[in-house]
Amino acid sequence: MNIGFDRAELHLRAREVLRLHDPLGARVECVRGSLWITQDRDFEDHFLSANDAVILDRGGLALIHAQEQSDIVLFEPAPRPHVGARIARATGRWLARTFGPESIDRPHSGRGLGAL
User: Fold this and answer.
1) Phi, psi of 17 (to 5 degrees)
2) CA distance 13 to 78
3) 3-state DSSP call for residue 38?
4) For the chain, where are the E strands, in sequence order?
5) Which residues, 6+ apart, have CB-to-CB distance to 21 below 8 Å?
6) SS3 for 44?
7) What is the pLDDT of residues 14-39, one digit of tens each?
8) CB burial string 47-68: b at 16+ within 10 A, e below
9) Mind listing the pLDDT tens digit for each residue in 100-113?
10) What is the average per-residue pLDDT within 84-91?
11) What's the maximum distance between 2 C-alpha atoms anywhere in the chain?
12) Residues 6+ apart with CB under 8 A from 59
C-alpha cells in the first residue's frame, strides 16, 4: 500500500501486514495492541505496544505487522523545502545581515571615518 496522508488512523487485524513505500520521516504510533516494524536496509526491528511510537528513518519499504488486533496512527512528515527555496532563504538572510538596518551599527574595522 502506498498512500498519501497527513494523519491516518488504521485498525489492523491480528497478523495483518501494512506495506509503506518510502516512509522516511513518517511517525507510527501504536494506540492499542502490538506491532512489529521492519525497514529496508535496517538491521534493527522495532516492537511497539500501546502508547509507543517510532519515526521511520529509511526510504525503501517498511513493513508493519500487527501481532494482535491493533489500532495505529500514521503521521506523514512535513515536506522538506526544495533546494532552490533553501538557497533563496539563506541568501535573503545573508543580504539582511550584510546590508540591512542592523549592519549600520556593526563596527567595520579599517573602514569609514573612524579609521582615520
Assistant:
1) -115, 135
2) 29
3) strand
4) 7-12, 17-21, 27-32, 34-39, 46-49, 52-55, 61-66, 70-75
5) 2, 60, 61
6) coil
7) 999 999 998 888 999 999 999 999 99
8) ebeeeeebebeeeeebebbbee
9) 776 666 555 555 54
10) 79
11) 82
12) 22, 23, 24, 40
Residue 85 has pLDDT above 90, yes or no: no
Whole-number pLDDT of residue 71: 97
What does R_g of the chain's alpha carbons equal in angstroms? 24
The single residue listed with the C-alpha cell 500487527 is 66
Split at pLDDT 50, 70, 90, the class of 116 is very low
C-alpha cell at 75: 503521521
